[in-house]
Recover the amino acids of this structure.
């Protein structure tokens, strides 16, 4: 696995998430820099509420992402390691879709709708995400600056991608 050392002895890991375009169940993996499977993401199929789970390579569930059912505006709840830590909510707007992320001490800065952002905790960068263009399906590079926050970072990326997919599905159903 590719590890880089930062000042203060901290290591930085690079992870890659590539979502399969035609996966009905929303099943895909998150790999390390050596292309080894690190996490498995699986969506519910034909089930309400719509949810995704993220498991580590040993099969231990680390995150559940659940879309609130019967809500006027979409809302997603993210439970990391059994605790609700992040809520992503769509705001009412007339033009460009807008979401807010609510998490204790976590701030997402940059263009998170285009998947190019940094994740901060209490003013410190703990990771960054960049969408990889010209690839089949959605592919993201996740830089983890604080390995203790790795589960939180991948959860945020999957949750935002889920919110974006939900928005795209809603837009195509309306046409």
């Amino acid at each position: 696995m590719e590890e880089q050392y930062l000042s203060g002895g901290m290591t930085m890991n690079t992870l890659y998430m590539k979502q399969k375009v035609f996966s009905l169940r929303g099943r895909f993996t998150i790999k390390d820099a050596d292309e080894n499977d690190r996490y498995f993401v699986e969506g519910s199929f034909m089930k309400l509420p719509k949810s995704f789970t993220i498991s580590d390579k040993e099969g231990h569930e680390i995150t559940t992402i659940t879309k609130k059912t019967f809500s006027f505006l979409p809302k997603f709840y993210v439970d990391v390691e059994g605790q609700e830590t992040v809520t992503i909510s769509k705001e009412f707007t007339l033009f460009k879709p807008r979401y807010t992320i609510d998490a204790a001490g976590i701030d997402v800065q940059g263009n998170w709708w285009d998947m190019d952002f940094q994740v901060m905790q209490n003013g410190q960068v703990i990771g960054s995400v960049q969408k990889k263009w010209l690839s089949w399906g959605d592919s993201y590079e996740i830089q983890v600056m604080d390995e203790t926050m790795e589960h939180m970072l991948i959860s945020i990326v999957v949750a935002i991608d889920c919110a974006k997919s939900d928005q795209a599905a809603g837009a195509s159903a309306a046409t």
Remarks:
- Confidence is low (pLDDT under 50) at residues 1-9.
- The CA atoms of residues 22 and 83 lie 31 Å apart.
- Residues 150-174 form the longest helix (25 residues).
